Each structure stands twice: as C-alpha cells, then as structure tokens.
Amino acid sequence: MVGLMLKDLLTMRRYLKSLLGVCVLLGAMGFILKSPSYVSGVGGVTSFLVCMVSFSYDENCKWDAYGLTLPVTRKTCVQAKYLLSLAMVLLGALVSALIAGGIMAYWESIDWMELLSLVGSTMVTGIVIISLMIPCIYKLGVERSRLAIMVVFLVPMGVFLWYLGSGLALPTLSPWMGKLLPGMFALLLVLLLWGSYLVSRRIYEKKEF
What we know:
single chain; 209 residues; 8 helices; 83% helix
C-alpha cells in the first residue's frame, strides 16, 4: 500500500510544487488582507486537486490494467487512494494552521479558538470532498465525473444560499443537543467516509480493465 501511495506522489511531484505555489498565494492574500480565513480552503483545494490529478494520471497511462497484475488486491488499491487523500487533507490542515497562525501572530495575537475552527473547517471540507469525489471517479471516470461532482456540490450550496436568503430563522437547539452536536457531526463524518470507501471498493472490485 505504501508503494502505491509513493507511486502517486512521485508521479505528481511536479504538480505538487505548483500546488505549493497555490498555498503560498492564498497565504499572501490572507496576509495582505489581514484575514486568516483565506487559507481555510487549503485543505479542500489540496484534497480535490491531488485526488483528481492522481486518478487522471492513472487513467491516462492505463495504470489499473497494469497494477492489477502486481501482487496487490483491488481492496489495497482503493485503500491507498483514500489514505493518500486523507494524508493530503491533514497536510492541508497543517499548512492552514501554520499560515493562519503566522498571520494572526504578525497582525495581532493568536486567537486559538478561531485557529482551531479554521483547521476543523479545513479538515471537514477535505473529507467531504474526497468522500463524494472518489466513488464518482471510480464509477464514471475522471472526465465524466466532473459534471457529477459539480452537481453534488452546487445543489447543496444552492439550497443553503436559498435558505440564507429566504429570511427563515435557524432552528434553536436545546443546551443538551448543543453539547451532543459536535460528537454527532464527527460520527456522521466518519460514517460518510467509511460508506464512501465501501462504495468505492465495491465499484472497483466489479470493474473490468
């Protein structure tokens, strides 16, 4: 599995340098505007782009047809993709924390609660993205999955923006529900990722190359 992850990283080594430039650009914008929130998208950007590019390279060079002749199972191939994507999410969260912390320390004092919420939102965004993207790519391929991925993200966003513009009041939560909400949300996120992995594995095990 480690070899499969290293294969993706070595294949994308030039692309990762460009991705580093994107992170630096977001950090510079946040520094100039005195807004650490600009780096909150680093986790989402890294997970989305690395995941898409990794699959794109594999598809272009017909890697799956060759890789399955090696002593690795289809289950291991799927696991490697998810672990690599999760590693990129964690790396993006770490970069976000370092850049945002530096911006806060330079312009003012570090607000640890804001920093933690920023890192948390970065990780949540990245995990949701890979959970929805990877099954779509396994099922439809890189090119055809792009439209499906856009629909998956734009429809909930449109509903959310409509809700904000409608003037409807947000539901109030009881104190005990407010305490349980973070744990319930974390559990939902884990279930989403696990369900995504199971769907992807089922699709890949039945796929022919």
